[in-house]
Amino acid sequence: MEVKTHKKIDRKLCGKPVELQEGRAKVEMITLPEMAADEYGLVHGGFIFGLADYAAMLAVNHPNVVLGAAEVKFLKPVRVGEKLVAEAEVIGEQGKKRNVKVSVRRDGEEIFVGNFICFVLDRHVLEKP
User: Fold this and answer.
1) Entry pTM
2) How many domains are contained in the chain?
3) Domain, as residue range, for 71
């Protein structure tokens, strides 16, 4: 299946799609030293959120999809050098609204969960009417 959204995303920072099908996406990312928040190598949560958000966008896979809201939980800390796998699934659709469930795992252990509310717009969010 072709990637139709977020085509210019930096895959080092947001992950690489490894599976893509209608309403589902799987994205992998190796955490980098640039993601560290401190001398212990704790990865800043924003990078984990970015991975999950990218997976949600790919699950919807529409050129004009945008994030409207997210409710997330960080369950475990992540260190630099760890491989993360985000799996996203569209679990609901109402008009332009898509409800996407995302789970991020490290070695099979869930470290992040989230519910993302995405919207499929008629035109790009930055395009002038």
Assistant:
1) 0.96
2) 1
3) 11-120
